[in-house]
Amino acid sequence: MSNSFCGLSSQGGAREVLIARRLYVGLVHYPVYNKRSERIASAITSFDLHDLSRLARTYGVRRFFVIIPLRDQQKLAERIIKHWTEGYGAVYNAFRKEALELISVFSSLEECISIISENEGSNPVLIATDASRRIARGLSYVEARKMVDSGQPLFVLFGTAWGLDEEILKRADYLLDPIESDAGYNHLSVRSAAAIIIDRLAGKATS
Asked: Model pTM?
């Protein structure tokens, strides 16, 4: 996978804002929990790769990392990415090609942090997401938005299956406040949760 980094935008002043932002997203497939709170490696899904890469491209995320140590799952992800960036899919849908080119597949969180640090010249601030409030060091969306706009490198981590393992939550610098509603139901897919969160962190401000 390519490890080149760039700020992405469509035009004008928006481009300057996106270049100033140094936002990265990670989709963690290991270590995560299953419904019995056992540590597992979850499976890659095509939906996640397509939708989250399009999300990343839309909001100027510099790189979308997929973290999975299982070689068969890495090959699956690589095959999907290659089809849309080099194969027939690249010709069929240039917009999808542009999005999937943002994906890099690595075996561990530490590898991703190393790549970001090498490209940015400093370690990224790790911001974990979780549907509960299991760990302290909570971070509000207002505070997180200020961090994004300040230009410091940030690495936002999303868990698959039943959420990020405690090991990663403790490794993170901050735990972002969970998405909450008045309905008493808190079981969004990772794609839905990521879309809400990234829009709050990097979307256009509304009056």
From this structure: 0.90
